[in-house]
Design a protein that fits this description.
about 290 residues, alpha+beta
């Protein structure tokens, strides 16, 4: 289930969910997924989505998904990916610059989980080790007792993301993997976050300590496009973008560094995702 910050239930994409159940719930479907999630297929799909020919997909997608185009700059698209990574109009996303406030890096559906002493966390009933996610046992141990925030982007979300605070970052570490959908249905059968391609960096923030930010690729997402290597960054500055497909951002916080907002904690405890927007407050400094 998905809810807004005001408690309204959001209707999910039932057609997409039925297709995913067929793919992940049958032998034939899983054989097909083995082909669809191969990196070469993702690269071919990415090349098409970059081409002028892909522009024919834009208007049908807008009609089907019900995107509010009044929020976006809707002109001059050279390809579907150009449209998919469209920019928001000035003033349509307000970044909270209060230093003690924790903000969302993106438009998404958010769940928050406490990280236990064995560095496991749960998403939709599936358990994951942080060391698997990062492929780094030493780094993962630092986040025991902290929080894991899962920001799930759907295809109709704004696919650019920002820095949650000001500070200095490490270089980007890319982990190659199979590209699967990040829809919760897939999580029931596969350890999706362990198998997907992903990229992470350590953000040495001014207000929330050392935060690990991980971008996770999804089915037919050929590229995670981060804009910066090692260096300084500012709260609200664009960090990067995802190209075609649904995607996920994971933030890891050390123990006693943040206090998530109560509605998000309550929803997460009940297995409910909360709709959040780029730059809005989702918690505060501990």
């Amino acid at each position: 289930m998905i809810k807004t910050r005001t408690g309204q239930v959001v209707v999910s994409n039932e057609k997409q969910n039925k297709l995913l159940k067929k793919l992940y719930g049958s032998v034939l479907g899983r054989v097909l997924l083995k082909t669809l999630t191969a990196p070469v297929i993702s690269r071919v799909a990415g090349c098409f989505m970059d081409s002028p020919a892909s522009k024919v997909l834009i208007n049908p997608f807008i009609r089907k998904s019900g995107i509010d185009t009044s929020q976006y700059v809707m002109c001059g698209f050279r390809s579907y990916n150009d449209f998919f990574t469209r920019r928001i109009k000035p003033g349509k996303r307000s970044v909270d610059y209060t230093p003690e406030h924790l903000i969302s890096p993106c438009d998404s559906k958010l769940t928050v989980h406490k990280i236990n002493r064995r560095s496991f966390f749960c998403i939709k009933g599936s358990r994951y080790r942080i060391s698997d996610l990062l492929d780094n046992e030493f780094l993962s141990k630092r986040y025991s007792g902290g929080y894991c925030c899962i920001f799930r982007l759907e295809v109709d979300d704004y696919h650019r993301y920002c820095y949650i605070d000001s500070g200095v970052k490490s270089g980007n570490t890319f982990i190659r993997g199979e590209l699967h959908t990040v829809n919760p249905i897939a999580l029931e059968r596969y350890n999706i976050y362990k198998r997907n391609s992903r990229e992470y960096t350590v953000l040495h923030t001014e207000n929330f300590g050392d935060v690990v930010q991980i971008e996770v690729g999804a089915m037919l997402v050929g590229r995670i496009l981060n804009l910066h290597g090692e260096g300084a960054f500012r709260r609200g500055e664009e960090k990067g973008r995802f190209e075609f497909g649904g995607s996920t951002i994971v933030l890891l916080f050390e123990k006693d560094s943040i206090i998530p907002d109560e509605d998000i904690l309550k929803n997460s405890a009940e297995g409910i995702e909360t709709v959040v927007k780029y730059g809005e407050k989702i918690g505060k400094k501990a």
